[in-house]
Amino acid sequence: MSTATMRAVRLHAFGEPDQLVYEEVARPEPGPGEVLVRVHAAGVNPPDWYAQRGFENFPAEFRPAWTPPLILGSDISGVVTALGPGVTEWQPGDEVFGLINFPGRGSGYAEYVVAPAAHLAPKPATLGHVEAAAVPMAGLTAYQYVFTHLRGDVGSTVLINGAAGGVGHFAVQLVKAAGAKSVIAVASGRHERFLLDLGAERFVDYTRTPPEELAHDVDLLIDTVGGPDAHRLLPTVRRGGRIAPVFLGDYHRDRAAELGIFVNETLWQVRSNGADLTKLAALIDTGQVRVALDTVFPLHEAAAAHTRAEQGHLQGKIVLSVEGEGLR
Description:
alpha/beta; Rossmann fold; 2 domains; seven-stranded mixed beta sheet; six-stranded parallel beta sheet
């Protein structure tokens, strides 16, 4: 058994961000079908701060049975350092990124992580590790929604609510790649230039004017916000149009049916998939998709990163820089 160690951030108890502790722990070893990755950067995602608080926002029957101490983090970018038995598709030294073990625990807030070989993809050549770590969960959520769940059928006009966030800013670009002619981006006013630069044709500042007063007859609403007031967006969708919720929302389904609007009854759950991530990486390397960073924190400031995440109103993604932590 290896006695090697590494630095990692572990959650010692559910609660506030200060329960995330930077410390020395045992380094994992890859098993069959797995690789060991030296993590250079790790993305911070909603499931990470939900886990930090013990999934208190989930109905009790849906809360994962996780017990601290545990290492959070599913998005990573780094370099393969060792191979488990049976792995032939990767070699030590390969630069990779991935959404690892999701749904489930990824353990990416660390200097090293073990990942199933099939969950990884070659890192986009045009991105550094920090930018690459911002892609997997948010990018795959948008990619799989558009190209797997909707099969690329997005219609001509798409409204994206919460367009400046992690999933939203990828969705703006991916529906364009799927053939949408007009994208209406809904966010707060400070994100207008950002979203127009990403390719949105129209911008709606929801803090000044309700979107339902300005946008109508859209073919598809991708709602990355949801919540109890989600039904307010029904007037934006044409008869025969669709609502694609990314998070739980109350869309007054009976009223939607009266209006001839189809609301997807099953939330789309992103899943680790190296093949899909490879396709997304190709769109990034050809310039069709750009990655936005909200803030970057060093690994040992993971608590500060979670505090920033809980403040909301993100423009892109929060990332933890892991490279160089071992020198502390």
